[in-house]
């Protein structure tokens, strides 16, 4: 396996982003963030990619920022201790590039959580549309233990996944919790044996990738945007999306396959 801090691979219609600093529990450095943003943008522009998986190598999914880089004279977040005013955009220009790249990413983005996801690593997991965890995974919003706050979207994503009260509890205490507790609170969709994680996630990813791509992407757009508007606006958006899907070849293939009692052959157009 290459020693690059992040790997990007496409098999069929599924792309996999693999965080690859196992000796650091996949803590991110500046190079990993560069490659992470590039991978998302590449998947966005590649019409052949319909689903993206993000996972990690080794025992951890992501342990957040590599704070050891500060001791080596480098700061992954780009902070300037000599001129605090220069820090006003340091998060925007570093770790926030990942959630900003995902802001307009309308393809399914699935996290395969192979191990610990702590601090900014948990925030990175929270950015996914779906989270599937191995039984070995652990989670924690550890910022408060360092006298900090979630800087890359955790306070935005987490309440939308598990509700405000539970999210505040986790952020205020910073406690570590198990994959089973994550399942019970609705943070993850499934907990599976460690050895089965990637096969289960890949099965799900390929099932979604073989569905009508236009419908899948418009469903994601509609679901997220409907959560931010009133019912009237949500119904208007649904009507507009339906007009688009009805014009696709896949919208003809689905009923045709049903009538002919055969599996549909969706082409993604």
- The oligomeric status of these chains comes to single chain
CATH third-level topology of the largest domain: 2-enoyl-CoA Hydratase, Chain A, domain 1
Question: What is the fourth-level CATH superfamily of the largest domain?
Answer: 2-enoyl-CoA Hydratase, Chain A, domain 1
Count of distinct strands:
10
User: β content, as a range?
Assistant: 15-25%
Biggest β-sheet, characterized?
6 strands, mixed
Short summary:
This protein is an alpha/beta fold. It is 42% helix and 16% strand. The strands form two sheets. Strands 1-2-3-5-7-10 form a six-stranded mixed sheet, with helices on both faces.
Describe this structure in words.
- This protein is of the alpha/beta class and 269 residues long.
- It has two domains: 6-209, Alpha-Beta Complex (2-enoyl-CoA Hydratase, Chain A, domain 1), CATH 3.90.226.10; 213-259, Lyase 2-enoyl-coa Hydratase, Chain  A, domain 2 (Orthogonal Bundle), CATH 1.10.12.
- The protein contains eleven helices and ten strands.
- It has helices at residues 30-45, 68-71, 97-102, 120-126, 154-162, 164-173, 179-184, 197-209, 213-226, 231-246, 249-259, and strands at 6-11, 14-19, 51-56, 60-62, 109-113, 116-118, 130-134, 138-140, 176-178, 190-192.
- The strands form two sheets. The chain has a six-stranded mixed β-sheet, with helices on both faces. It has a four-stranded mixed β-sheet with strand order 4-6-8-9.
- The longest helix has 16 residues, at 30-45.
- It is globular and about 60 Å long.
- The relative contact order is 0.11.
